[in-house]
Specification:
- By secondary structure, the protein is an all-alpha fold.
- It has one domain (2-64).
- It contains three helices and no strands.
- The chain has helices spanning 2-11, 26-32, 50-64.
Amino acid sequence: MRRELVLACMDSPLLLVATVMVAPHPFADRIKARPDVEVIEIGPHNRNRLPADLANKLMKLKSSQGEE
């Protein structure tokens, strides 16, 4: 049931930010392989600026979809 819910959320028109395991796993790999998914690895080099970067990216995506 949880997997179906995750996939339903991902198939919705809403923008989604989520975390997924790095280690290989069939379901996680299926999610990471989707063409509408962008995987951003978090580490010391980007963890402090990541919230602002994600906010900017989401704002741009919403603008391109005609939302405010």
